[in-house]
Amino acid sequence: MGWLAPLNAPIRDWQGRRVWLVGASTGIGAALARALAARGARVAVSARSRERLEALAASGGAGMLAEPMDVTRPEDFERVRDRLVIAWGGIDLVVFNAGTYRPLRAWELQPEVIRETLDTNLFGTMAGAAAVIPHLLGQGSGAIALVGSVAGYGGLPKATVYGPSKAALINFAETLYLDLAPKGLGVFLIDPGFVATPLTAQNDFRMPALISAEDAAQAIVAGFGRGDFEIHFPRRFTRVLKLLQWLPRRAYFALIRRATGL
Q: Catalytic: 162?
């Protein structure tokens, strides 16, 4: 039965649970913050936009805190972590959702865009993990969740920098799980497909199985409730992408070109 057990302790009771959402001013992060606050969680939302965070916190009731920060500044993670520990006495779950995306083909690569994407999507998340893992180990409980993407499963046109940044996050989450699960901490990997957000609004192609940020938040909550390591959605789309990875590269490249027209 051990092979059938959830990889993480399921999270079903959110009442009073202390959740820090990093990258929560819009899109999936904001929708997840509202969904968890509605279930009774104490939620802190972080991003660079103070105005958006304060508006979100005001809509979430007294249990939601706005904590502006910049994920490219490691000291900001430490500052907000300490503020939340003082306010709450501890942290139960940290969701690293901050991300940026610019659709680029190989001939459009620019060093400044590469740095900006990796600083936000990868280095910021790794710095955040470095800030919170010692605290969670010290309190002897808690979990972290990293938001990757199905773009990290395999190479895709226009994801020339975004895709590799998310592939690295998937690898990072798997490595964290190997280290932290034996010590009693949960590690969740969230891999969305296409979700209607300000970032995906940049795309000039048809996005298959596009869902709303609210539907994405519900899928994430359900995944926490099952104790999944990887929470991927919508499954009618993500399962196809997973199957494609089993194909020889010649077949994979041909199918991706045919599907995207690129």
A: yes
Radius of gyration of the chain from its Cα atoms, rounded to whole angstroms: 18
Kindly report, residue by residue over 198-228, the tens digit of the pLDDT.
Answer: 776 676 666 677 899 999 999 999 999 999 9
pTM comes to: 0.94
CA 259 centroid distance within chain: 26
Alpha helices for the chain (secondary structure H): 27-38, 50-59, 74-88, 111-118, 124-139, 162-180, 213-226, 235-244, 249-260
Q: Closest by alpha carbon to 241, among 208, 212, 218? A: 208
CATH topology of domain 11-260: Rossmann fold (3.40.50)
Residue holding tokens 């979700």?
195
62 pLDDT band, cuts 50/70/90, is low
* From 153, 162, 177, 252, active-site residue: 162
**159 in Cβ contact with 138 (< 8 Å):** no
DSSP 3: G
